[in-house]
Amino acid sequence: MSPADLAIETHGLTKAFGRQTVVDELNLAVPRGSVFGFLGPNGSGKTTTIRMLLGLASASAGDIRLLGDPIPDAAAEVLPRVGALVEGPAFYPFLSGRANLRRFDSADRTASSSTRAARVDAALDRVGLSHAAGKAAHAYSLGMKQRLGLANALLTPRDLLILDEPTNGLDPQGTREVRTLIRSLADDGATVFVSSHLLAEIEQVCTHIAVMSAGRLVAQGSLDELRAEGTARVTVHTPDREQARGVLASLGLVPDHTRDDTVTAELPPGMLPETVTEALVLAGVRVRGLGVAGASLEDRFVALTGEGFDVAG
Amino acid sequence: MSRAETVPRRRSAGLALLGSELSVLFRRRRTWAMLAALAAVPVLIAVAVRLSSDGGGGGGPAFLGDITQNGLFVSLTGLVVSVPLFLPLTVGVVAGDTIAGEASLGTLRYLLVAPAGRVRLLLVKFAGAAAFCLAATLVMVLAGVAIGAALFPIGPVTLLSGDVVGIGGFALRAALFVAYVTLSLLGLSAIGLFISTLTTVPVGAMAATIVLSAVSQIVGALPQLEALHPWLFSHYWLGFADLMRNPIGFESFADNAVLQLGYIAVFSALAYGRFSTKDILS
Questions:
Q1: Does this model's pTM top 0.90?
Q2: A23, B80, B84, B275: most buried by Cβ count inside 10 Å?
Q3: If pLDDT is split at 50, 70 and 90, which confidence band does A187 have?
Q4: Do B106 and A110 touch (CB under 8 A)?
C-alpha cells in the first residue's frame, strides 16, 4: 500500500518514560477510508500512542505521518483536518456545552468565525445534545460529556477522526448511537481510528483492527484477515454421539466438547469440512447437521493479549 | 474523496482565540470575585476615613491624609495600599492558572489538538493575564473615584509639587497611575505564566507566584542585599510619586518599563522553552 493511501502511518514509533517503554516499535498502517479498531487492554499503550499521533507527546524514536504529512512538524497544517477525542472529554465546567465548543473552535485558526455558531449547533445536533446546549457542562452526565466530546471532534469537516474510547460511560443505547455515528462518518469518506478495550463494542463497525499488548502491536489487518488466522471448529449434530467421536478421532481430530447430541472439535488447517461429512456418512453415523465456525475474534484477542480485555495490563 | 480536502483552509490572524480567552476569563465567577474584592479596598478606606472624621493625623499610606480634603485621593490611596499584597495576590491567581488550569481541566489537550499552536496559546494566555492586570487596577481607581465622590468633596487636586490641577489634570494622572501599576504587574505575570507551564496543579503555580512576589519585596526591604535591589521586579512598584508632580516625571516609569520588559523577555523565553517541547499527559 503506498503511503498516500494511508491516513495514519508510523514506523518504529516508541515512547519511553524513564526506563519504562510504554510504546515499543509500533508500525501502524491505517488505510484511508477504513474504520480502524485500535484494541488492547487498559494500560497497553493505546492512549500514549494517540497522544503521539496528535503531537501532544513527542516520540522517543520513530516517525509518524498523519494524512501523509509528518507529525509533529506539520501539525499546524494537518490537525485542522483531524477530529479527536483523547482520553475522555474535558471541558470548562462553568461554561455551557455550546460555549465550550465555541471556545475550542476558536482555537483553530482555519475555522471560520462567521460559520462558528452554525457549525457548533450542527455538531451538537449530530450527537443529540441540542436540548442541553445551554446547560453548564458541570451539570452534564458522563454520557452527555462523552457526546459533547464527540461533537467537539465534528466541529469542521474532517478527513480523519481519532476517537479514544468513544463509548466510555455510555449506556447500550448510547453505544449503539456512537456506532451509527462512526458508520455515517465513514460513509462520508472520513477515516475513523477508534480505540477501545472492549472488542464487542466496535467489532461490528470496524473494517480493520490492530491489537496492542504491553506496548507492542501483536496483530494488524482487515477483519477478514484476522478471522482467517484463527482456527475453525466443526460441530456435528448426531444422535450417535460416541460413534461420531470415534470417526473424528480416526481423522486425527480431537473431539473436545460433547453435550447432548453434539460433538465439536478443532478443524486442522487444510482439512475440508466435506472430508469430515464423508467419513461420518461412510461410517454410518446418522448426521442431523454439521457446521463449521471460525474462531471468534474475542477468543483470538484473548489469545493474542494473554488476558481478558477488562484486565489492567 | 474526503470532505475536508474540498474545503479551502485559510488561516485567519487567530484573534478569535484571544477573544475567547478574554471572554472565558471575565465570565468566570472567580475573576468577578477578585475584582469585587479589589474594588472593596478603596471603599473600605473611604468608609474608615469618613467614620473617623479627621484624617488620622498624617500616619498611614501615601495620600491617606488628603482624602478628607479631596475624595479623588481615595482612588490613589487604594492602589498604594494594594500594590504590595492584594494586586500581586490576584495576579498570581490569574497568571498561575494560565496553563496549569487548562492542564488540570484537561482542556489543554483539546486546545492544542484544535490546533491552537503552543506559541500562540502562550501569547494569548499572557495577553489574558495582562488584561486582568489592567482590569484590576482600573476597577480599583474607578471604585475609588466613585466612593470618594460619594463621601467627600471633590475638586481641584493639589499635587506633591504644590501645583493645583483640575479634574482633567487629575484624570490624566490617574490614567498614568493605572498604566504604571499595570506595567508593574506584567513581570510578575510572566513569572506566573512560566511557573504555570511547569505543573498541572494550578493552586501550586498560583501559590509559587504569590510567594515569589513576597520574597522579592522582602529582599527589597533588606539593606544588606542592596546590590540585588535594582534587579527585583518589585523594585519600582511604589515608585509612582513622580507622576503626582508638575511637570510629570517619567524617569521611574521608564526604568520600570525596562525592568518589566526584561522580566517579560526572560520568563516568556523560559515558558516557551518549557512549553514548546512539553509532553501533554494531562
A1: no
A2: A23
A3: very high
A4: no
Q: What is the ipTM of this complex?
A: 0.89
The boundaries of every CATH 3.40.50.300 domain in chain A are 3-228
Give the per-residue pLDDT at A257: 67
The alpha carbon of residue A128 is apart from the nearest alpha carbon of chain B, in Å, by 21
Encode pLDDT of A238-257 as tens digits. Answer: 888 888 888 888 888 888 76
In angstroms, the CA B96 to CA B106 distance is 16
Yes or no, beta carbons of B14 and A109 under 8 Å apart: yes
Q: Which of A32, A81, A103 sits opposite B24 (nearest CB)?
A: A103
CA B172 to CA A237: how far, in whole Å?
Answer: 99
| CATH number given to A3-228 | 3.40.50.300
CATH of A231-294, one of 3.30.1050.10, 3.40.50.1820, 2.70.50.50, 3.30.70.100: 3.30.70.100
The answer to whether residue A90 neighbours chain B at the CB level (below 8 Å) is: yes
Cell digits for A269?
488447517
